[in-house]
Design a protein that fits this description.
Layout lengths: L1 H18 L8 E3 L11 E3 L2 E15 L2 E9 L6 E7 L7 H16 L5 E2 L5 E2 L5 E7 L1
Antiparallel strand pairs: 1-2, 2-3, 3-4, 4-5, 5-8, 6-8, 7-8
């Protein structure tokens, strides 16, 4: 019984630490205070947005693993595509654009894809990008 209590205590500490740890990203912050289904999942560059969890993707290209996620302002276009590498390496804008458009078109586009370069953002080191796309 003593061992079971120690195990349960350790598990509770691990779960609560994980649940309270925000995404470590310069551009996307997890909403750790989400209390309702309608509350935003994340803040993308400070703007509250919903995260399409089913759209998460890992793309391997030329020996690099890229992680992509989609965000939208509820009931609005465009998509904000978060592009980063698995190892934190810098990404050039052309690569981020190419990956983001190829990634979102089969998942979320019901109309022709239009790039929204006015929404593009990068962190200072270019290790992550937000790529704007309407479709």
């Amino acid at each position: 019984m003593k061992h079971m209590m120690a195990l349960l205590t350790a598990l509770a500490v691990t779960v609560s630490a994980y649940a309270g740890t925000p995404t470590q990203s310069a551009l996307v912050k997890t909403n750790v205070h989400k209390t309702t289904q309608l509350a935003p999942d994340a803040f993308v560059d400070g703007v509250p947005m919903s995260h399409f969890k089913d759209y998460h993707a890992k793309i391997n290209q030329h020996g690099t693993t890229y992680l992509l996620d989609s965000y939208v302002v509820v009931l609005e276009q465009p998509f904000y595509i978060h592009v980063r590498t698995n190892d934190g390496q810098a990404i050039d804008l052309n690569t981020a654009q190419t990956l983001a458009t190829a990634y979102i078109e089969p998942r979320g586009c019901t109309e022709p894809l239009v790039r929204r370069t006015d929404l593009d953002k990068s962190d200072d080191n270019h290790t992550e990008w937000i790529i704007g796309v309407s479709c």
